[in-house]
Design goal:
Number of helices: 12
Shape: elongated
Largest sheet: 7 strands, mixed
Structural class: alpha/beta
CATH architecture of one domain: Alpha-Beta Complex
CATH superfamily of one domain: 2-enoyl-CoA Hydratase, Chain A, domain 1
CATH class of one domain: Alpha Beta
Helix content: 25-40%
Strand order of the largest sheet: 3-4-5-6-9-10-14
Strand content: 15-25%
Order of helices and strands: HHHHHEEHHEEEHEHEEEHEEEEEHH
Radius of gyration: 22 Å
Number of strands: 14
Length: about 350
């Protein structure tokens, strides 16, 4: 994904700041805090119309529903619970309330589904003498297939790391890139890695920006491209292993890789999380994070609820008991043509 331009950063910052200064004159009471939170989501959350349609709720109705659970003498803990319950209706892992009490969160995007990952089993495939290049772990499997694990896009990867890895693996017949369990991190890392898998400029998606308080007030979608790296690029087939825990920047990476000619995405649907998050504050002083800028795939389809793989695969528990990861084995078979 391309970095935000200086103009867009200034534009978005000015919009959010003006809203924060002009509209959030709410009392620090249970009702005042709920009204402030409800208005914040109503005016600035970028997926509200989409979520109302897909999940079948009315945000206007939820204000009354959760206001009925308030009372002037309720504790901070009780207020926190009510506000978190209201936000959970959005089913968005990028929507949080951060307090000294706790971190309000919604992890249903991964907790309600099979994990399809056994980290101890994955470690067996890496062995003990695998290479470590910053956030990357990699080795060569006995059938001459490169096996690369990237557990978090929060773990930095440099161009030197990537070039050294590509050089070491260059004689392999294909690559398994395993990002199962990768909950996201830095978009710059996602872009830097995806640039190693294309020889030409590729349209990977679009992004819009909130321009007003209306639920559908957005800028014209801006096309996002992945440019080929100026360094060593991978020229052989790739299987990208994913699961429901691939979220946020990892979800964006999968979106990008779906457009690469030699890449097959295998596993379960990703967890989603396609909105660029921003933060605000409630009268009580609690920080609220929310999705403010939606991104789409190359066909202008939402990827907020995840991305379907090209090939469905899941972890076979009986095979796992014998020391084999059925998803890695399926990827090996695909790459070796069996």
């Amino acid at each position: 994904m391309k970095k935000l331009s200086a103009f867009l950063i200034i534009f978005i910052s000015a919009f959010l700041t003006s809203c924060q200064q002009g509209d959030f004159s709410y009392d620090d009471t249970p009702q005042g805090n709920l009204d402030a939170l409800w208005t914040l989501i109503d005016e600035r959350y970028c997926f509200l119309s989409y979520k109302e349609k897909e999940l079948g709720f009315s945000w206007a109705d939820l204000r009354a529903k959760y206001s009925a659970k308030l009372n002037p003498k309720m504790s901070r803990v009780q207020l926190f619970e009510v506000l978190c319950q209201m936000l959970s209706e959005l089913k968005d892992g990028h929507v949080n309330i951060s307090t000294s009490l706790d971190l309000g969160r919604n992890w249903s995007w991964k907790e309600d589904y099979p994990e399809n990952l056994d980290t101890e089993l994955r470690q067996r495939y890496l062995g003990t003498d695998y290479h470590i290049g910053s956030g990357l772990k990699y080795t060569i499997l006995p059938d001459n297939i490169a096996y690369v694990v990237y557990e978090s896009f929060s773990d930095a990867i440099g161009e030197g790391n990537l070039s050294d890895m590509m050089s070491f693996l260059q004689l392999c017949n294909g690559m398994i890139l395993d990002i199962r369990g990768n909950g996201g991190g830095e978009l710059t890392n996602a872009e830097r890695l995806s640039r190693r898998f294309t020889n030409e400029k590729v349209l990977v998606g679009y992004m819009s920006y909130k321009t007003g308080k209306g639920h559908d007030d957005f800028s014209e979608p801006r096309a996002e491209y992945v440019e080929p790296s100026e360094h060593i690029r991978w020229q052989k087939p790739v299987v990208l292993l994913v699961n429901r825990s691939c979220y946020s920047a990892a979800n964006t990476f999968v979106r990008n890789m779906k457009e690469m000619p030699l890449v097959t995405v295998m596993g379960d649907q990703t967890g989603g999380g396609s909105g660029l998050p921003f933060s605000s504050e409630l009268p009580i002083g609690w920080s609220v994070r929310f999705s403010a800028s939606p991104s789409y795939d190359a066909r202008m389809q939402h990827v907020e609820f995840g991305i379907e793989p090209d090939v469905k695969a899941s972890l076979d528990e009986s095979l796992a008991a014998s020391g084999k990861d059925s998803m890695i084995e399926a990827a090996r078979k695909l790459l070796t043509g069996q």
